[in-house]
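Entry 14. Two folds queued back to back today. First construct below, sequence then structure tokens.
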Amino acid sequence: MDELGWDSCDVILVTGDAYIDHPSFGMALVGRLLEAQGFRVGIISQPDWQSADPFRQLGRPNLYFGVTAGNMDSLVNRYTADRKIRSDDAYTPEGIAGKRPDRAVLVYSQRCKEAYPDVPLVIGSIEASLRRIAHYDYWSDKVRRSVLVDTKADILLYGNAERALVELTHRIAKGEIIQDMNDIRGTAFMRKSVPEGWLEVASTSMDRPGQIDTPVDPYAMEPAMEKTGQSCASTAADATAKDSNVIQIIRKPKTDRAHQVVRLPSYEEVANDPVLYAHASRVLHLESNPGNARALVQRHGNRDVWLNPPPIPLTTKEMDLVYDLPYARAPHPSYGKAKLPAWEMIRFSVNIMRGCFGGCTFCSITEHEGRIIQSRSEDSIIREIEEIRDKVEGFTGVVSDLGGPTANMYRMACKSEKIEKACRKLSCVYPVICENLNTDHTALIGLYRRARALPGVKKILIGSGLRYDLAVTSPEYVKELVQHHVGGYLKIAPEHSEENVLSKMMKPGMGSYDKFKEMFERFSKEAGKEQYLIPYFIAAHPGTTDEDMLNLALWLKANKFRLDQVQTFTPTPMAMATAMYHSGKNPLRKVTKSSEDVAIPKAGGKRRLHKAFIRYHDPNNWPLLREALKEMGRADLIGNGKKHLVPNFQPAGTGLPSNKRRLGEVKVSASGFKKPTPRHYAGK
């Protein structure tokens, strides 16, 4: 600040991450964007939250504090799917854990208020974005209030918030009161009531949950109101009442959707009724298209949390502006030679797009970034690759990724802008690829070819998750990918083998996987390359039974997969699968008390069993699997032959609880048994 001649900051951003000046890190992007708008921005990174003093180190901001937990939700960052504390933090120097508090947005907000009580408080990024309404919190196993209520923030920016951020900052700078800024898209704030001029629509009238009343028989002779258990006496006193046998049709005039607000069940209601919670989740997701979404409101005590419609996606020109800002593309010099795992992972990668129209129920990308793909121009991407080549220390000529939330949705969009604005589907690719979706990979193929032809670039790898159901629509793309952009292994995520589970995930069936695998192997052979697919699977996802996991294990064994890594389902705030986990209902369809029940593997033992099925080859899992197979009536799968899933012998020193193995109570088998080496791929 002294070198720049600043006596104060206009905006001070507080983040739970180490400061890395790169567009993949939210605070860097926000800081550079506001700087380009002429504002003086300070960043307080990973402050000690035990007192307010560290939050005063840059002085009082002229406009507001902006608070975020960082690139990850602080609870996902700190705890495993089994609620065990992680030993590291990829966003901290040397990966040291414990440098940010649990519920970091809440804690940082409290300290900002203590430091300067009169300074406006703005919260945003992934943790706040996914907690903008009442939400199920896996780590406390209860429904919590909107983070707006607990932080007492003046406004919350959700999703990709560049538009909202720039508008909000300029308006505060012009002297507007932040509490009066109720018209910015992509924001949430508190209100006492619905203002005049708005039509309030009850969500339950759109998608009625709960027990449905018996329909009134229109041919019955007795008064209709008596049939529904109501008294006619009250209507007799009404001077304007008509004969109760006469049905009146009242047509409401069409109302501008821009002035409609959908009232969700209150926090108190969804906290006490899981069915209403699932209903609220369903309605929120149905009202997520920027082209037709209405405002949402949810009562918390005596005030409302008001959510304006989602932000309008950035154009390609606007995306280029954001990513072409003068980033240093390096960690802050104050960290010296300390290693930052998250930086090591992405420093040679390039983000080419945002958003995802897949709609996978276990993923929060759609809730945060939206379904509409926002793509950078080819020229902007090439400029960034050249900048990495020329400026980033340690570059050896290998670009680790050209991708984003997915590897291959670049420049894909609905064929009709009119249809896109009216659509309320939760996915463009499930149960099948929408006929209105343009799946042309030509632009992406052209980008790959231009990027790998750059002087000084030896290899362009693709590290982002691939939508293989889209890829198989373009054999030319698969050939380009397999023969030029795979470094021996390619990650894909079938997630499961069983249709029962895949339908709850909104993922394609294994037919698409088989088709892609055939293409992958054929094109690898044509190029004379030995390459392998690395599939990822989820254990204990809502809707999964023991039989489903057994069938997956048999599929893995038949395909000679021995997986090291297993992802156990984690219920993150606002995801559709989280609503399933909490309610036991399927919000992909209309939710009522009698609607489809979903099997939920909640108990720790059940989750361990499902994880063990995926790692059927690990001797430590064999005792658990033997017991389960006997209970399931599948003892025929226990034995020492090729047709068996687990053997009937147990190597010495295996099969013990993990804590005993960690404490060194395991001894090597005297029999000379060698534990099978876990392998990622088939045929090796």
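Second construct, same run, same settings:
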Amino acid sequence: MQSNFPASLIAFLSPWLLFACSSAEVASSNPSSKGGNVGPLGSGGAGGGISLNTGRSTQPDLTANMAAPPGCGDGILANDEACDDGNKVSGDGCSANCLRVEPGYSCIPPGQLCHQIARCGDGLKVPPELCDDGNTTAGDGCSPTCKVEIGYKCDGSPSVCTHTTCGDNKIEGAEGCDDGNAMPFDGCSADCQNEPNCKSGSCTSRCGDGIVLGEECDDGNNVDGDGCSKDCKIEAGFTCAQPALGDTMMVPVVYRDFRYHNPVDFEAGVVGSYAGFPGMVNATLDANGKPVYSGIGGNAHVASADSFSQWYKDVTGVNHSTASKMTLWKNGQGAYVNRYGPNGEQWATTITAYFCGNVGNEVNGQPCTFVYGQTDCDKNVALGYKMLKCWANGGNYNATFVTSQVDGNPVFFPVDDDPFTPATERAFATIPPYYDPGATWPHDVDANGVDRLHNFSFTSEVRYWFLYDKAKTYTLDFTGDDDVWVFINKKLSVDLGGIHTPVNGSIVIGANGNGTTTVAATYPISPPPVPTQSSVNLGLQSGQVYEIAVFQAERQTTSSSYKLTLSGFNAAPSDCSPTCGDGIVELGEECDDGVNTGGYGKCGPGCKLQSGFCGDGVVQPGEDCDDGVNAGPPGCPSGCRMIF
């Protein structure tokens, strides 16, 4: 074999000199993390390589200043070469001296141009990866496709990802903006992502807000390399489209916690009603996008316009604000709604059966059965109800049955953990008839029957943006107590103001850009009140972006219900995916040689490396060794080859 290396240098480096793949690498502490360097069959049985990394940090290139072997650049892979792509140019995958396959490349087969490799999770950050932290775990800053996740910044190879601080006036990592605070609805979200500007009528959509308006794409960030550029242009090798929403959608919300009687409008000691008090707020929002008290008297229980103005703005010493997101769950009817359980569980409406047999007279010893005849339990089972709980009460059995599953949340207490209000102001809550048809107003209790104590006196503010299309129908349905106002395009669309039991309100937006609102009380009184219906002139124009703003207040210590349903309001950001087979390696692909037929050291179907490779722990043809780490002494060199 040919070599023009000085003997002393060979003696020092042989046999572990990594004349393949990447620069020398320090083994990961996790030996199961296998990336490695793929070496194909070459002339004389020697291998070339793929520059992959398994969560290792790179050392200086020991081959950089070495002379090229005599045959370097002839396109024939000799035993004294790591690669040979037919030239002596660095930066194209094979170094100018043919002694190193550069990181992020595969030089198989010899004599042809090397092709790009980006194996997300191997710890080696190479284009087009935006980060690579050595794993494909979501939520740690670097996504499973090696994209920097919202709330993080990532540096180095392997990437070290740390949290960004939204609100520090520094735009870092995946942030698209930073206005010095971490509150939404001011143009920059609580995640430091752009929001539409809705100060004057229809909104102005900005690149990075996730709404495609006059843009090729908008994936909700201002990052290059992920398919949709920082200027909202579709990048080469990608296709972008707005996907259908998944099982959930998130809407931003701000909760503001108040003390009792601070202002005096909260916990005023009044008895609620079965219906709302419309007219409490003006028909349009003010210049800051907030509702304005109209001055209505009677049962509004508002001290003044000044006290009302504190409900939906941050006032030191009066309230405490928390930015959050509300999860809406797919309801199977083309809409999304909030629910009681953290995983989308619906509230179970129940009834109690008070005679399900005598203790000691069960059928085959089974509780809530009666050997002598039919019981209330049997009747409920016949109706298709599911038994939730059975217990002995004296000498008889009682049971609880689930009669239906209901959306929304009858115990809506989002500020229970806010320390602004002392524990002495926590109180029990009751379940309203809307969620408990027995109209018994039962207490909300834990598994042991003990009252859960909740933090009342709070407001919520939800905002959501949508692109209006006159060919679609949009529906917003709401149930709540106490006060609820819905504004669309800054115009009052649903008015459920006042202290009251849950009331339903809905609005349907049609092709004319206007809405039809329906309001109905939920309390089971006889005769039931007739729902009221009215028209709302929203003035929406097709192809424009508009804002929905939902304001709610919980002012009376009795119960707290909230149900928000959105239908048709799809504002999912662009989903960009790489085009496998175009010969361009893009984020989400490990490789793309334009053919992708597979084989050792080549790209396989789906733009994935699917054959064995150096680093898989198996010595394959063309490899001298493979210990699964391949980082040098005392083990195998990173190219799985011993070159002398």
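Quick look at the second one. Residues 1-59 have pLDDT under 50 and may be disordered. Helices lie at 7-13, 305-308, 376-382.
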